[in-house]
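Entry for uracil complex. Fields follow.
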Amino acid sequence: MTKPKAEGSAADFFPERKTLPAFRNAAADCKACDLWERGTQTVFGEGARRAEVVFVGEQPGNEEDLTGKPFVGPAGRLLGEALAEAGIDRAQTYVTNVVKHFKWEPRGKRRIHKKPNAREITACRPWLEAEIALVKPKVIVCLGATAAQALLGPKFRVSKQRGEFIESTLAPYIVATVHPSSILRAPDDENSSHRKATVHRRSETDCAHSFKDQIIPQKRFNTVRLTCICESLPRPLPEFADAQVV
Ligand code: URA
Ligand code: SF4
């Protein structure tokens, strides 16, 4: 028998009950694209049911695939550290990915991350939309180009437009920044602003170019600002008229 061609949509696997746990259960059985065969399990989003901020990455990595939890590997640990430094409890946020299965290729004994293609992103997107619709965040933070282009369009350039708060139908605002793994991959080079940022961050010096300053809206979302302390140039961002102070 020939294998059925996976050209489906995650929406074909939607549960009747529109709750996060029901969606999580349903996603575990998703076969809307071919990636379900390659990954160990579906890695659904995780976090607070009513998080004010949702972080969206690209897809689970090796450790996420094995544990079934998003952002628990090296990039996730860096994200957690950045959040902690910004005074944000990760448990109060919701963390997920555009694609819910790990796409990889063997290289020796290792599984090397491979970028998801447009078909896989389109097939998986309904899970992300359902998560966003149920959590109802005030801000969605896209981590890296895959998430940014999936939610803000293929012309979006993280390098140019990161930090811009963009109004959206998915949430009041979407903002994008670099993916934490790009900081981990950055060469150990004096001229690398990413590496400098990491060094600054590690030495607890606030820096305009540091990861946390680029991406982390302030804890209280009645006013969300990105601060740039080393240049003493706080950049005010739009106020949320309907936001509640937590
Ligand atoms: N990178 C991602 O984009 N998502 C994860 O969950 C882990 C690493
Ligand atoms: Fe379904 Fe997404 Fe996994 Fe493809 S990657 S099988 S669409 S959960």
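NOTE: Residues 10-187 form a domain with the Uracil-DNA Glycosylase, subunit E fold (CATH 3.40.470.10).
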